[in-house]
Amino acid sequence: MSIIFYKVFMASLPLFIAVAFAVALGKYKFKHEITKGEIALNAVISSIVVVVTIGAITLYGISETEILNGEVTAKKRNTVSCEHSYEVCKMTSDGKKCDTKYKHSWDYDWDVYTTVGTLTINREDSQGVIEPKRFKKVVIGEPASVEHTYYNYVKANTISLFGYSEEQAKQYQDFVPNYPTIYDYYRVNRVLHTNPSLTYSLTSGWNEKLNNEFRTLGGKLQANMVIVVTDQPASFFESLIHSWEGGRKNDILIVMGVKDGKVVWSRSSTFMNGMGNGVLLAKLRQATLGYDLKADSDKVLNSILDVTKSNFSRHAMENEIYQLAALPISWTSIFIAILVSMICSAFLSFKLSRNQNRERVNGLNNGWR
Questions:
Q1: Same-domain status, 122 and 165
Q2: Transmembrane stretches, by residue range (predicted)?
Q3: Parent domain of 346
Q4: Is residue 154 part of a domain?
Q5: Are 63 and 147 spatial neighbours (Cβ–Cβ below 8 Å)?
Q6: How many CB atoms lie within 10 A of CB 182?
Q7: DSSP assignment, residue 270?
Q8: Range list of H helices, 260-363
Q9: Cβ contacts of 176 within 8 Å, gap of 6 or more
Q10: How many separate domains does the chain show?
Q11: Among residues 51, 1, 24, which one has the least CA distance to residue 334?
């Protein structure tokens, strides 16, 4: 991470001129109210605001969400502090006095514990006294998936990782399904279809079995699997990889082209275009290509799982941290940083000018008093 902050600092140097200008406005506008030391403090804070703002916006641009897989380990009602407060005010000899009151002595949270995090089921009443219907349905040991945000260092390099044109990649983008997301708190559909009316029945039960398998495989392999079944030609694969930006860092993506129930083409990918997983991708193709899903659906899925367990190798994101050296700083982030720093500088100058109780130290006064 030190690389990115170094780049942000270097990119922020010209912005310090704008920050100094904002501080100078405060200096001349409040020249009889603030000291040199306070002006220096304002300049330092404004500079920090610039660096932090640009850094936050830039890092947000390379963030993405992966799916972590595990299982439910426990569920429990927990007593928590009341979240519902109101103020009661009355007039006294010293003026208006307000006290914070709470509607309840405590509230209740209905929490679900999993191997990939803790989830809270929405309450059915404000205090949480009533056990939520969804909480009752939680089963210990059932599959649980959550979304996890991380920084994809590969995105820092704008040079495409894919060996095909953008026009080719976009050819079938209208048929590409959305990347899976979590629904109903911790569930996920990891088997997708571009034309469900033709292919959905061929993979009946696949999603349930994959979710059950990844209760343990998710943690053991640190992986996630998504299978896409399509009736489109093989070039559809490039469109999907392009739309999904190569998938997530823990993904095993399998795309099968099906005609009359038979797998006529099959391609797969993992993070960094399959880096370190050449054997896995080759064996996944062998495990799927040419099979009739009408007759061999279970056999194909079992083969996919067996091959994955034996051959998947996770490529760590830390191996790509060097790509942060190519991370571009956008003009949008620079503009926002200038604006935020100026607002902070003006606000701080105003607050300092109104601070009548601060202690004055010899030599600190600005000389304009």
A1: no
A2: 6-28, 40-62, 329-350
A3: 2-62+327-353
A4: no
A5: no
A6: 17
A7: E
A8: 271-274, 278-288, 293-311, 331-353
A9: 194, 236, 239, 240, 243, 244
A10: 3
A11: 51
CATH number of the domain enclosing 251: 3.10.310
Domain boundary among 147, 181, 216: 147
Query: Does 25 score more than 80 pLDDT?
Result: no
Please indicate, yes or no, whether residues 266 and 212 belong to a single structural domain of this protein.
yes
Reported in sequence order, the residue ranges of 57-133 that DSSP labels E, i.e. its strands, are: 63-80, 85-92, 95-102, 107-114, 117-121
For residue 242, tell me if it sits in a domain.
Answer: yes
Give 165's pLDDT tier (boundaries 50, 70, 90).
Answer: low
Picking from 324, 330, 329, the residue whose alpha carbon sits closest to that of residue 2 is 324
Longest dimension (CA), the chain: 91
pTM for this prediction: 0.81
Strand partners, 183: 187
Listed in sequence order, the DSSP H helices in the chain are 2-12, 15-29, 36-61, 133-137, 166-169, 196-199, 206-217, 236-243, 271-274, 278-288, 293-311, 331-353
Statement to judge: residues 191 and 281 lie in one domain: yes
At 127 the pLDDT is: 93
With b for 16 or more beta-carbon neighbours within 10 A and e for fewer, the 316-340 pattern comes to: ebeebbebbeebebeeebbebbbeb
Q: pLDDT category, 22, cuts 50, 70, 90? A: low
The residues, any chain, with a CB within 8 Å of residue 250's CB and separated by 6 or more, are: 66, 67, 68, 222, 223, 224, 271, 314
